[in-house]
Predict the structure.
Amino acid sequence: MNLWLTAATHNATQVDYLIFALVLISCAVLALVFGLMLLYMFKYRAGSDIDRGTLPRKTWRLEAAWTAATLVAFFGLFVWGAKLYLLLFQPPADALQIHVIGKQFMWKAEHDGGQREINAIHLPVGLDVQLVMTSEDVIHDFSVPAFRIKHDVLPGRYEALWFRVDIPGTYHLFCTQFCGVDHANMVGEIVAMPKADYQKWLARSDAGETLAAAGKTLFMRYGCSGCHGGDGAGANQSQSTVRAPSLAGLYGSPVTLADGRVVKADDRYLRDCILTPARQRVASYLPVMPSFAGEISEEELLKIIAYLKSLSQQEPS
Ligand SMILES: [Cu+2]
């Protein structure tokens, strides 16, 4: 019988070690406190003929020693936990991205090639995978116990989560944030497969267009091209009357904003530019870009962003 939940990622094992250490140290402290309590309850019970008159003098050395020892132990756990946290929540830059949208009451996933799934995510083992997640309605929480990870999925912003699965298999996916009447059924599975099988799965799935291609169509349809140019090259296009920045090569590069801040153009930045442009105006352009909040759905948004990203990948750098 397997009492211990599989640890399917390297980081999951690290989390387990930390939990072990925490439980071990807590048990040791508990045993010491309750052990002494029981010992003295027995020693000084009513009717025992122990000498209660002359107490030995308290030594400060003992006091200082146990205070220091517990401080070091628990502070060590804190540092260990903080380091692990930073590792778990900082996705590596070159990870394979998969898009996840939470919605009452299902998980939708989209791959860059345009493959879509519901309540299942196929991914390769041995590769860093980053999930870019958002919600279409309320707060959900993406949790995979076998990976020892969970992360809130919030409406209105992108949250990132990453992992590298070592062991091929099918793992449970849960929503762990009460999100409505059917919350209990908001479950799914992560299917981790060897790279070659994953490629086969991608090829087999009915993909239609790639995300970027679908995004280009939307870029035209929503009139982005009217200001930013037909191929996103912006500014000096003669077809445009408004001066708008070029979007080619934008993804991943630093942007200077009108208020002097310099930010990195990541997924979250692109998303904010489209939905709440007033909150980060690009320096030296007129603040004319309208907000598309409420007009563009989450699924369309991730396609447009995939298109904007593809404009950067074509650039020889
Ligand atoms: Cu949910």
Summary: The chain has two domains: 1-34+62-207, 211-313. The mean pLDDT is 87.
